[in-house]
């Protein structure tokens, strides 16, 4: 039994998902499914967090570790994904009830999607990468289409599904080529063969390109971001929240494991060889395009979608610095994803809070004047966008600070990447602060409906939790950075 | 036959699928093109398993691909039906509700 401790968060989510499916099938009235789901996600996060903090991970049997890593990095992502999913579920508990489309399958789907994301984050074999990716993606497609009578929701789902399956097929073809080039499906074996120079070079490069394309798609990096704004806008806001934190975190984890784990032998990699220049280029165009496209939006939800594209760019900056400052770069990426999770939950949660039944707040105009009328409800929105912008003392500031200082320490052209990143995030000030300007300094046009905040215990609790951690990670970042460093140590020594 | 033949066959199948996905405007045809791409991967996996006969990783992988492809097709058709019910079309050129 203790052998399974290392994967207990996964098992817990599956058990909870199956139980909720049964309960939902046999009960007539709505049980408090949102709180049950959130509690099981937070318990899973606490399990993983306890093991991460204590530093000793119970060894798992070989039959598990061949496919799913049981290490600090896996536990770190368990915590991030479970907390992101748990907070999104709490938001859903308020949002779905307020707008009148709460159904039990929502919670089951989000549990299984989070499970897939956690499998993906600890996958160390091409087979488990594929299975984790598909488990996560199929759940996410269904979640986007959840509001199936809404034209926007189904259109977002169709675009997400078609492009997502296309990207998965490319990734799969790359996996098969990599298996052919090295004779291994496990990342460790692939890494050994590649480092020894025994792999067929053409096949390996082709395979690596296809893997990066497939994973960059899931991350939402430009030019593979086309689905992001549409799926994010079409989905109900709690699903958007979960996609922007949980799915992005899992994509970061698997990129780290594939690029650093299997192709990351620093001895065989200089600056202009290996995958570093490709990731650098992706990082630059993602940051620049994401920020510029976000400028042009009139919908806050769509602006936050493009902002999540831009944040994928900042994460890639940290990844590109791995070849020079391995451990620090990986831990800066991990810190960033944790800080981003809380900040994004806070921003999307505030957007949910600002809408009540029949009056969902979506565009800037919807928010006009709402802050002056309801200052308490608008306050979390202010902290959320300031953290996404990277203002001290919020989590987002240290996220950007660590990522960019990793880039500067890496030296060479990475310094220019950092400069472009800082300039691009300065552009972000315009559209993030625009939210605050509309909330507090604009008045609505006469016949325009004014956003009226909903009252929901679920949403309030989420915002308090997320806001607390956004500020706490911005005031005492060292504790969380220590966790990130210990998680990074299982990938780079 | 050498591995090159299988590699060429798989690449052609994959290319036909990708071209179909990018060129056609009917979502059902695009879904079929994706299935073709997944099947080209199966050809590749089986062929590479013949070159590496020490275990059956490639063949096992192919079974998983088949199973997942079935799940993906089921969900995809469900989403397409939901889309058709709302919009009465499956043409990608008409899916322009969400844009800048």
Write structural notes for this entry.
The complex is a heterodimer of chains A (493) and B (100). Helices cover 75% and strands 0% of the residues of chain A. In chain A, 62% of the residues are buried. In chain A, helix 4 (72-99) runs antiparallel to helix 20 (457-475) and helix 13 runs antiparallel to helix 19 (413-441). Chain A has one domain (2-488). Chain A has helices at 8-26, 33-54, 62-65, 72-99, 105-121, 126-144, 151-182, 187-195, 201-219, 227-234, 237-262, 276-295, 300-320, 326-353, 364-367, 370-373, 375-389, 395-410, 413-441, 457-475, 477-488. The two termini of chain A are 30 Å apart. With 100 residues, chain B is an all-alpha fold. Chain B has one domain: Helix Hairpins (Orthogonal Bundle), CATH 1.10.287. Chain B has helices at 3-23, 27-51, 57-87. In chain B, helix 1 (3-23) packs antiparallel against helix 2 (27-51) and helix 2 runs antiparallel to helix 3 (57-87). The longest helix of chain B is centred in the last third of the chain and has 31 residues, at 57-87. The radius of gyration of chain B is 17 Å and the shape is elongated.
What is the element layout, followed by pairings?
The complex is a heterodimer of chains A (493) and B (100).
Chain A (H helix, E strand, L loop, with lengths): L7 H19 L6 H22 L7 H4 L6 H28 L5 H17 L4 H19 L6 H32 L4 H9 L5 H19 L7 H8 L2 H26 L13 H20 L4 H21 L5 H28 L10 H4 L2 H4 L1 H15 L5 H16 L2 H29 L15 H19 L1 H12 L5
Helix pairs in contact in A: 1-2, 1-5, 2-4, 4-5, 4-11, 4-14, 4-20, 4-21, 5-6, 5-11, 6-7, 6-11, 7-9, 7-10, 8-11, 9-11, 10-13, 11-13, 11-14, 12-13, 12-19, 13-14, 13-18, 13-19, 14-17, 14-18, 14-20, 14-21, 17-19, 17-20, 18-19, 18-20, 20-21
Chain B lengths: L2 H21 L3 H25 L5 H31 L13
Helix pairs in contact in B: 1-2, 2-3
């Amino acid at each position: 039994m203790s052998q399974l401790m290392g994967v207990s968060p996964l098992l817990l989510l599956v058990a909870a998902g199956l139980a909720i499916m049964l309960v939902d099938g046999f009960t007539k009235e709505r049980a408090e499914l949102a709180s049950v789901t959130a509690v099981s996600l937070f318990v899973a996060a606490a399990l993983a967090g306890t093991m991460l903090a204590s530093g000793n991970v119970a060894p798992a049997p070989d039959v598990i570790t061949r496919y799913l890593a049981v290490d600090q990095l896996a536990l770190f992502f368990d915590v991030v994904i479970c907390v992101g999913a748990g907070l999104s579920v709490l938001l859903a508990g308020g949002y779905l009830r307020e707008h009148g489309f709460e159904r039990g399958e929502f919670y089951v789907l989000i549990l299984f999607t989070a499970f897939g994301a956690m499998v993906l984050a600890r996958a160390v074999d091409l087979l488990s990468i594929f299975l984790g990716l598909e488990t996560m993606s199929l759940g996410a497609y269904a979640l986007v289409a959840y509001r199936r009578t809404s034209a926007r929701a189904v259109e977002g789902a169709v675009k997400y599904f078609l492009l997502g399956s296309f990207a998965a097929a490319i990734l799969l073809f790359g996996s098969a080529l990599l298996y052919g080039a090295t004779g291994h499906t496990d990342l460790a074996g692939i890494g050994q063969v590649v480092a020894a120079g025994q792999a067929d070079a053409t096949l390996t490069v082709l395979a690596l390109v296809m893997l990066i394309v497939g994973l960059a798609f899931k991350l939402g990096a430009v030019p593979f971001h086309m689905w992001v704004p549409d799926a994010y806008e079409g989905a109900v806001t709690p699903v958007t929240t979960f996609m922007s934190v949980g799915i992005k975190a899992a994509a970061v984890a698997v990129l780290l494991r594939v690029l650093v784990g299997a192709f990351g032998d620093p001895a065989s990699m200089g600056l202009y060889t290996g995958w570093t220049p490709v990731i650098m280029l992706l990082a630059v165009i993602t940051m620049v395009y994401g920020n510029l496209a976000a400028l042009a939006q009139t919908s806050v939800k769509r602006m936050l979608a493009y902002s999540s594209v831009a944040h994928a760019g900042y994460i890639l900056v940290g990844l590109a610095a791995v070849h020079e400052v391995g451990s620090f770069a990986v831990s800066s990426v991990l810190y960033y994803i944790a800080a981003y999770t809380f900040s994004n939950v806070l921003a999307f949660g505030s957007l949910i809070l600002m809408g009540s039944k029949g009056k969902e707040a979506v565009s800037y105009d919807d928010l006009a004047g709402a802050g002056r009328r309801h200052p308490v409800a608008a306050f979390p929105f202010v902290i959320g966008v300031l953290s996404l912008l990277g203002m001290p003392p919020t989590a987002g500031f240290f996220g950007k600070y660590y990522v960019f200082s990793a880039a500067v320490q890496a030296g060479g052209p990475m310094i220019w990447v950092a400069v472009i990143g800082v300039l691009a995030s300065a552009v972000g000030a315009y559209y993030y602060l625009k939210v605050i300007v509309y909330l507090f300094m604009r008045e609505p046009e006469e016949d325009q409906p004014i956003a009226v905040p909903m009252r929901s215990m679920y949403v309030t609790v989420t915002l308090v939790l997320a806001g607390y951690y956004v500020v706490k990670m911005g005031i005492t970042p060292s504790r969380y950075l220590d966790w990130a460093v210990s998680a990074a140590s299982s990938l780079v020594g | 036959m050498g591995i090159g033949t299988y590699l060429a066959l798989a690449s052609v199948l994959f290319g036909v699928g990708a071209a179909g996905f990018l060129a056609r405007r009917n979502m059902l045809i695009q879904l079929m093109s994706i299935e073709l791409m997944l099947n080209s991967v199966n050809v590749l996996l089986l062929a590479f398993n013949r070159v590496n006969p020490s275990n059956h990783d490639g063949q096992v992988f192919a079974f998983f691909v088949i199973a997942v492809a079935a799940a993906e097709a089921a969900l995809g058709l469900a989403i397409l039906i939901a889309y058709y019910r709302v919009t009465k079309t499956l043409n990608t050129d008409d899916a322009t509700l969400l844009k800048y």
